[in-house]
Every structure is written in C-alpha cells, then in structure tokens.
C-alpha cells in the first residue's frame, strides 16, 4: 500500500514542458489589457503635469487683422494707426469709409495669480502619484488573478490525473470481478456492477479533461493571451511549508497596501484644493505686450508700427460667497477622505486576518487529507483481500475504492486551497508583486 501512496504522489508531481508561474506573471505584466490601459492612463496624467508646468510660461501669439468701416470712431482710429488723420480737413462726424490691415505679435506673462498656477501643478503631480498607486493596485490584482488561474489549472490537471488513477483502479476491479464470475465463484451482477463503476469513472475523467481545457483558457484570459493560445503548465501541486505571524502581516499591509497610499495622496490633493480655494482671495497680476505694423492699402505692408506694454492687476471683492463656499468644501473633503482612510485601515486588517485564518485552515486540511489517503489505501487493501476470499461483496469493494478516490480528490483540493491561501496573504499584504516567486515549487 505504501508503494501506491508513493505512486500517487509521483503522479501529482510529474513534470511536463510548459509555462511556469513566474513566466505566466511576467507575460501578464507585459500583455494584460488592464495593465496596459492603466499605463496609458499614467502617460496621460504625466502629459497633464507637463501642460500645467507650461502654463507658467509666457504665451506669444502672432496675429493678423483686417477691418473696413464707416463707423466714425473706428474710421478715425484706422487713419490714426497709419498716421493719415488730417485734423483740419477731416469731418469727424462723417469721416467716410476706412480700412486697416494690422499684423503683430502679442505676449502675455502671468506674474501672480495667488499661487494658483503652481498649486495646479502640484495637483497634477499628485494625480500622477495617485495613478501610480492605482497601477500598482491593478498589477497586484492581475498577478493575484493569474496566480488563481494558474492554480486552477494545476488543480484541474491534478484532477485529471486522479481521474486517470480511478479509471485504472476501476479496470482492475472489473478484471477481478470478471475472473471471479468466469470461474463460477462470483455473480454476474457483481461483474455488471463493476462494469457500471468503470463507466462512471470514465465519465468523471471526461469531465476532468473538459475542466482542464477550460482552466487553460481561463489562464490565457488572466494573462492577456488569445483565448485559444496553446498553453501547458510546467509544474504540479506540491506542498511547500510557509509560516506567518498575524501581527507582522497586518503591519506590513498597513505599510504597503496601494489603495491606502492612494487615499493618502488624495488627502494631500484635498489640502492642495484648500490652498487653491485660498488663492481666490489674492489679486491676479499679469503683464502684456504688443507690437504691430499697420497699413490701409495691403496686408503686411508697413505704413506705421507701434508697440504697447502694460501690467494688469485685479482683485475680486464680491462673488456672492462662492470663494468662501469653495474653501468650506475643500475642508469637508479632507474630513471625508480621513474617514475613508480609517475605514480602509479596518478593512485591510480584516482582509489580512481572514487570509491568515484561511491559510491556517488550508494547511491543516492538507495534513488531514494526506492521512486520509493512507487510511483509505489501507482500508482498500483489507477489503480487497476479503473480496478475493469471498468475505466481502463487490459493493463493499467499490465503495471502499470510491472512498480512496474521494480522498485523493480531497488532497488535491486541499493543496490547491493551501497554495491559494498563501497567495491571498501576499495579496492582502500588498506585496504579491515582490513575493510571487515564493509560490513557485
């Protein structure tokens, strides 16, 4: 019986050429659509930051204008622009038609807007930081999904192998029943019952193979590969000992979880929004300059040139209380985000605790499942011997065989749950990207 247990473990740990967990995750980090989209979003935010910095620089515009008028004020100004106004002969009430071609360069320079431009730059910079935290969160989620899909595939593969063992054992039971029946020592009904049992095991094998194919496609989806891409796993479910301390896990999670870091960035943004609201109480100061050439005969013809330079300042003294309400809103936003941070801390502590106790449970299940296989194999050995001696029925033998099959399946499920529990702990800590290689066999 010991040799059968060893054979089962060897079957679970046999290797075939294919993709490893590390390779699957590396590929996902390059090809997963969610990660690619978030990286493009990060580039958008970085472009917004560059644009906000460029707003601190002067703006320079080249312009060209044309007008034709009989309106006295504009007609007189057009003539003044080209030094063609005769104060004696001009009828100021009816100066007649006039036209003007004007081409120039105009510049504006922001000097002081209450710090608004630099605060906007700070906000854009923090948007970039927040998006980086979101990207890290999405990377952690994608890796977690890949790990789960990978272990789903390993589990499906192991179930195929256990189903193949069950078919092999059922064929042996059928052969024993046939020998007993042909020799006149057994009943035909026992022989037929063994045949039905074999068909049931073959049906289970068909289901296991179908689930294996589905699991392969689910892994392709998690990685970001075409669904029909041919993929095989290079590893099998094995036990690897892990030890964790709940208190240390919680501390690590509160220090590393990207969503908590993102909320802290948002709190900093809310403080910047308060600074932005305060800037509305400050004056706005800017400089401007203009140089142009003018002609009343043809475009870009220089009959006269002029320039102007000036400084403009403004201060809003009443807007119905909008400035005060914006300031109040920014302070309320900070209080709101602080509450979200506290809620996130509690949620993270709960998630880590849940992952830890799931891990403890899964680890114990592996131990129990391994013991159950040994006991089921010993039970089958005894009943098999009794059956050959005519002391047990075929139903007892097949029931005992079914118990062994179930024990094998339970062991596979326990191993799968154990590996997932380890991954969930790393995910709950926010360090799965840096520790997923620990999950490799």
Describe this entry's structure for a reader:
The protein has 441 residues and is of the alpha+beta class. It folds into two domains: 2-57 and 113-280 and 320-439, Outer membrane efflux proteins (OEP); 59-112 and 283-315, Outer membrane efflux proteins (OEP), CATH 2.20.200. Helix content is 68%, strand content 11%. The chain is built from eleven helices and four strands; from the N terminus they run H-H-H-E-H-E-H-H-H-H-E-E-H-H-H. The chain has a four-stranded antiparallel sheet with strand order 1-2-3-4. Helix 3 packs antiparallel against helix 5 (116-182) and helix 5 packs antiparallel against helix 6 (188-223). The radius of gyration is 39 Å and the shape is elongated. The model is unreliable at 1-7 and 9-17 (pLDDT under 50).
- Give the low-confidence spans: 1-7, 9-17
Number of domains: 2
Strand element count: 4
CATH homology superfamily of the largest domain: Outer membrane efflux proteins (OEP)
Radius of gyration: 39 Å
**CATH secondary-structure class of the largest domain:** Mainly Alpha
Shape: elongated
Write down the oligomeric state.
single chain
- The CATH topology of the largest domain: Outer membrane efflux proteins (OEP)
Mean pLDDT: 90
Q: In CATH terms, what is the architecture of the largest domain?
A: Up-down Bundle
H/E series: HHHEHEHHHHEEHHH
Percent of residues in β-strands? 5-15%
Adjacency order of strands in the biggest sheet: 1-2-3-4
Helix content bin: 55-70%
Q: Can you summarize the main beta sheet? A: 4 strands, antiparallel
Question: How many helical stretches?
Answer: 11
Return the structural class. alpha+beta
Q: Give the terminus-to-terminus CA distance.
A: 27 Å
